[in-house]
Write a structure and sequence with these properties.
about 475 residues; alpha/beta; 8-stranded mixed β-sheet; two-stranded antiparallel ribbon; binds zinc ion; zinc-finger; MYND-type domain-containing protein
Length: about 475
């Protein structure tokens, strides 16, 4: 459990700056540029690292000393921003760095993760895909499930960063704005999640781009051996258990996509009452889908992980909505997957009454306009509302959705990249939302202890690469969940 309050432990005094700073110890060799924690200067090789937390690096000893004693204020975007002195937050960062031990276990299991280092060094996904024989060049759709823009992975460098970089280079090269724009579009391509849905049918196993045996094949007739039984508490609890159950060797990189359905599985199992009631289908509202739209058939895995339920997933969010616009703009009105309803269905090979249906709601850009939101009733409530890499303190629409889930007693779960984001979300979003809920609570009043967080066992392995700290930072990294029900 994280506290939303500022950590009050002060281990630093002027006296022990000397022990905190290790002038003789050079900073870590950085495999890519990181930013000085104080002045945000991009540095290729750090001059100083905090020897206590080992989470932050500095461009100079001056920056390190100044940050230790007094932190901010600094001017950012013309406004003063105040930062906590490092001596105050250092113990918390040190605690967060402890999580790296769990990443060591993953690196021991997956041979292709070895050598990628810990401490926030980003995992070179594109290189690993290439070494595994997965096609990463191209414009998108032909790459099957690995739909990432040519030369780039959205998890390493954001599309926006890539476009900005290319545009800057062209302008420096003397091109005019319009010309630069055209080249950017042609060379960088436009990464739009869900391009597959504008096609006529889902691809088969070839969309994995991996050799047979390295991905979980969906059986046509045979069941899957030793099905986990969530009803008696048999849960798949780690990547190793999952790979062994599905008979996938550790050298497979399938985990780099499977974190999405497996994280949903983890979310559902946080609410035992959902598992206990096998008479009702599991209706999952998955908000803000992006990468999820590229791997729709892989969610069928949930049917084997949760074998006692019929499952309906409804994906709702701006990207799905924009895809609908793309479909309208397409010159030839070909039949597209996007218009299918449900979009995707998979029937259990040995129990035909068990099905998973995936729907995409393309009528609503924002969840707040969804009929179950505007006209809530217990009979139409989803079983759970969830979101992957939600950015709870980034997007202004979340507080309203969280309040809705609390007042309607709908279980909510989401993931965030790093623990800093979770901490930030506790302070800025969850406390006001809890207060608002408690003011009008007819059901149970909620405290911070009701909001739980864990390092997600089904996070995407390999660091995402945070510019500011070396703390664990992963796609689907930290899972947070709550329920205001009895
Ligand atoms: Zn600096
Ligand atoms: Zn420190």
């Amino acid at each position: 459990m994280l506290s939303a309050e500022e950590p009050t432990t002060t281990i630093g005094t002027t006296h022990n700056i000397a022990t905190s700073l290790t002038p003789t110890a050079p900073g870590p060799k950085l495999t890519r540029p990181q930013k000085c924690y104080l002045c945000h200067t991009l540095i290729a090789n750090s001059k100083s690292i905090c020897s206590q937390c080992r989470a932050v690096v500095y461009c100079s000893r001056d920056c390190q000393i100044s940050d230790w004693k007094s932190g901010g204020p600094r001017i950012e975007n013309g406004r003063p921003v105040y930062f906590t002195p490092h001596k105050v937050i250092c113990p918390k960062l040190k605690q967060w760095m402890e999580r790296e031990k769990e990443n060591v276990l993953l690196r021991e299991y997956f041979p292709w993760l070895k050598g990628t280092g810990g401490g926030g060094q980003p995992f070179p996904l594109v290189e690993t895909l290439r070494e595994s024989g997965v096609e990463v060049e191209g414009t998108g759709r032909e790459k099957g499930y690995w739909n990432v823009t040519a030369h780039v992975c959205s998890h390493e460098l954001s599309f926006r960063q890539l476009v900005e970089k290319k545009r800057r280079e062209l302008l420096e090269d003397g091109r005019d704005g319009g010309e630069a724009e055209k080249i950017v579009e042609k060379e960088v391509g436009v990464y739009q999640p869900g391009l597959m849905l504008l096609g006529e049918q889902f691809p088969g196993d070839e969309a994995w781009g991996l050799e047979e045996g390295l991905f979980p094949h969906l059986p046509d007739s045979d069941g899957i051996k030793a099905v986990p039984n969530p009803l008696d508490g048999t849960l798949i609890a780690s990547w190793q258990q999952y790979y062994e159950w599905r008979n996938i060797p550790p050298r497979s990189i399938a985990v780099m996509l499977l974190h999405m359905p497996l994280t949903i599985y983890r979310m559902v199992t946080k609410f035992p009452h959902l598992l206990a009631d096998t008479s009702e289908p599991l209706n999952i509202h998955l908000l803000g889908p992006e990468r999820e739209l590229d791997i729709v058939p892989l969610f069928a895995e949930l049917l084997f992980l949760l074998p006692h339920h019929n499952i309906n997933i409804t994906m709702i969010g701006p990207t799905a909505f924009k895809l609908r616009q793309s479909l309208r703009e397409m010159e030839t009105a070909k039949p597209a997957l996007l218009t299918k309803y449900p979009l995707f269905t998979y029937t259990h090979p040995t129990t035909p009454s068990r099905k998973i249906n995936i729907h995409i709601d393309t009528t609503t850009e924002f969840y707040q306009n969804h009929p179950t939101f505007t006209n809530p009733s217990p009979s139409t409530h989803p079983s759970i509302v969830c979101a992957l890499n939600a950015g709870l303190s980034t997007y202004p629409t979340w507080p309203e959705i969280l309040t809705h889930c609390l007042t309607q007693q709908i279980p909510f779960a989401c993931t965030e990249y790093c623990e800093q984001s979770v901490e930030y979300y506790y302070g800025r979003v969850i406390i006001p939302v809890l207060n608002e809920h408690n003011q009008k609570a007819r059901g149970r009043r909620m405290g911070l202890d009701d909001v739980r967080t864990e390092f997600n066992a089904f996070r995407q392995p390999g660091a995402k690469g945070n510019e500011f700290t070396r703390c664990p930072d992963h796609v689907d990294g930290f899972l947070t969940w709550f329920w205001s029900g009895p």
